[in-house]
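Sample 3 of the quickstart, ligand magnesium ion:
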Amino acid sequence: RAKGSVAENIAFYEPEMDETARARRQIANDLRHAIERNEFTLLYQPQHCIATGKVSGYEALLRWHHPTRGPVSPVEFIPVAEETGEIFRIGEWVMREACREARSWPKHLKVAVNLSAVQLLQNDFVAIVQNILVETGLSPLRLELEITETAIIADKLRALHFLRQIKTLGVSIAIDDFGTGYSSLDTLHSFPFDKIKIDKSFVLRSHESVEACAIIKAVLALGHSLNVPVLAEGVETIEQLDLLRDQGCDEAQGFYFGRPGGSPSQTADSQMMC
Ligand code: C2E
Ligand code: MG
Ligand code: MG
Ligand code: MG
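Result:
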């Protein structure tokens, strides 16, 4: 066979592709029962105000403990859930669980919930959020939804319509992983955001990459000129924190402050930090 021919590639990649496809199918299948089998948990990672050091809220991060595979990363199973549509049920479970949990926290603490791009396409999503807020008794002012740039660009008009409705509930919106997508300044200023989250890839490289540092500065300038607070994610060291503070960053989140962990209502000392 000729090198690089289709036949050669198929012969070479088939077993591996087959394994990947099989794993994906199994994940898709097993995801359908994960809620009923209590295989999901939420971990909470603190978000700190840089100036005061105080915790302002927690981001809810989904964990799946698969019965045979063990822990599966959301990076792996969320895309599968988006493909199969299972994300609607999972997203609703996450939202309800996070709101129920946050209800028992001190009142000044917010909870941030990640939204999948696909959830924006759900017609009754705003009604679902509203119902969950009523059901759990959480004030809408204490809920923040994290949406990626990519999710917004996929369908700008729809996203804008959705975000406006969400905002009228009193829920706030953060733009997640900022800097990794391709949103224009125009998109940014016409959308009603309450917070910009600088992607962790820039923060993690801030000391070795002039470019990463330049992007951080640019995002901070952008946020501040739009009057939107900026949070840096992935802060692991004091050096990164100092740099962000010097540049006027408002909030920070990362292993330096705390890894994602149990609900703060269950750990007395995290309440002490507030
Ligand atoms: P994300 O929303 O950008 O969340 C931040 C990720 O960075 C989390 O990974 C968190 O554990 C990790 N992280 C936090 N601090 C640090 C740090 O200092 N250094 C490093 N290297 N990493 C840090 P995780 O929990 O694995 O989640 C990955 C992604 O999966 C999330 O990125 C989010 O896009 C998605 N995800 C997680 N939970 C949910 C969910 O409930 N719904 C949806 N739709 N997506 C979710
Ligand atoms: Mg997030
Ligand atoms: Mg992020
Ligand atoms: Mg991310």
